[in-house]
Amino acid sequence: MNASGLARLGRDREAARAYASRAEEVKAAINTRLYDPERGAYPEYWSEGEYRFSEKISQMVNGLVAAYGIAPSSRQEAVLRYALDPGRNVVPAGSFFAYYLLLGLFTNGMVQEALHYIRTNWGKMLDWGATTFWEHWHTDNSLCHGWASAPTIHLPAYVLGVQPSEAGFRRFSVAPNPGDLKWARGTVPTPRGDILVEWARDEQKFDLSVTVPEGATADVALPAKKDCDEYEITVNGRKKLPSGVLRGRLSASRAMFTINRPGEYTFALSALQGTATK
User: Fold this and answer.
1) Among candidates 29, 28, 26, 31, which has minimal Cα distance to 42?
2) Domain regions of the chain by residue span
3) Fewer Cβ atoms within 10 A, N terminus or C terminus of the chain?
4) Is the dihedral of CA 167, 171, 176, 182 positive or negative?
């Protein structure tokens, strides 16, 4: 949520337009003045006095411009790959700014890269016996620091797939992004009650269960295999949709459903034999 969005929620249209206009001006200035086309990334700064870019390029800056749509969409994956390239001598993000780098990765569909980053950095904490989040990637500072808790929001939001579509989770989406994971389960607390989600997959099937609290509507997006164009889909074990579940589109990547009644629902998406596309 940005300042313009907050103003819209407050029904201040004039402020919403002013904030949106100012944001576009700043965005244009960043892309005009702070992008280095020769290196294909955003350096730390531009020096008017020396008339050159900074020699340093960081994961912090390039994670931010990708996470918040400052970089053009056609450029975001490239700057993130630059930031992750160990051969580029990029300044690494600490545990605080890792939140923004991960946000950029997940929102650009780089799920596997995000999981690798989490395993490499937070996995090190677990390997060393951590039971809390550390301030940095080492043990020289605070060993209990809330700013290092990025996976606790990104994993439920992008891997488990639960995100609000309307204020207070009045409407929410469940759109898992498995990466190389075979299963996930979790609980997302909301003002309307807990949202429970569990999914598991193999080469031919994706199973998902979701509990929808009272007063909420859920949009479920089951990930489909890219090399298959025909599926069998059941809800609560039956092909006929139960009351309160509406079928949406079946695209090349997702099977869509809307749930407008509270309760627990189970979905099973199975690829039919002999339907793989070439």
Assistant:
1) 31
2) 34-152, 168-271
3) C
4) positive
